[in-house]
Design brief:
By secondary structure, the protein is mainly α. Helices cover 69% and strands 5% of the residues. It contains 16 helices and six strands. The protein has helices at 14-23, 55-58, 70-80, 84-92, 112-128, 134-137, 144-163, 166-169, 176-183, 187-230, 236-257, 263-286, 291-331, 335-346, 348-356, 360-385, and strands spanning 2-3, 25-26, 29-30, 38-39, 99-103, 106-110. The strands form three sheets. A two-stranded parallel ribbon has the order 1-4. Strands 2-3 form a two-stranded antiparallel ribbon. A two-stranded antiparallel ribbon has the order 5-6. The two termini are 49 Å apart.
Length: 386
Amino acid sequence: MFIDEINCVSETLAPAMLQFLQCKTFGSHKIPEGWLIVAAGNPPEYNKSVREFDVVTMDRVKKIQVEPDFDAWREYAYAKGVHPAVISYLNTRPANFYKMESTVDGKNFATPRGWEDLSRLIQVYEKLEKTVDKDVVVQYIQHPQIARDFASYLELFYKYRTDYQIDEVLSGHIDDILVKKAAHASFDEKLSVTGLLLSRLNKVFGNVQEEEEKLASIFDILKEAKEPLMGAQKEQPLVYLEDVKNRFQSDSLAKKKAGLLSREDLHHDQQVLDTLEKYVMDLKKENVQDGQSAFSLLRGWFNAEKEEYDNGFDKAAKQLEYAFDFMESAFAGGQELVVFITELNTSSPAVAFLQEYSCERYYRYNKELLFRENTRDILERIRQLG
């Protein structure tokens, strides 16, 4: 059981909360066996409603102080599709990830929640072809200096995306002039270009992963349906498949109502449902009369989708290789390649793709990166011993 803002409990409720924490009961209601109580709250300097717990209360809890960690958040950000401009900006200025300052005018702050909310707004503004300026940014990043800095960076980010023709690079059309331009650019510009390549690749990897998960679900459904379908006659194949689709939809809705599905899960289920709906419609058009013919058609349609997935996978692999071509040509021996490899290791779609695709250069650079990190760790230990 999760209780939020536990340190905002009023003094009148404090005895009841103490009983709850100690005995796992609230009045006559007892928490079921095996349940854990997890609570969260902000420090008093961030919330005026907070009151300090006394020793009696603190003695009954295990306190874990949570600190902002950009590296941990970045992994989350990739998984949640946070806008690449936000990630690449914070890569260059990690100190701006979380900042809280008191001024004569009140609090100035930048928080992880603010960056994620700003990311969603940027994505909406891009679809509407609207400009995100400093006045918009400061509504989410309520630290005027950081808001101005990010607004300027975002403007440059869009310029770099146009100048460096990222889609052309990932199609294998690498302009020597652009390579030279990138090689002699400022460090911030180099990291922005690296971020642009990574964001495009992550989108491609994410699409491949989505399609693979959808096909895996469809395969399991068809495998289970094979025997009943093969034995069905006349109108029954269509009726059976409709029933399969309806049962899948009902199960998904039940999980949604119970709060068991994430946004990604809902998207996945909708993709599977759309595919099953298409199968049903196509069977109706074919006017199938027996189960064997129905399953033969379903198998053919699934194999066609699998072939399309394979082509998409191969295209993603080529795009990764083209990205390495550009990175090696523009940033050979530079820190940008280290950043590129590190970000690939952080992104869950990239990691999933690289588990399926054996990219020689990725493994080589990753091995070199691991060697460097181990060497630095050993040298630091020697320095501490000295």
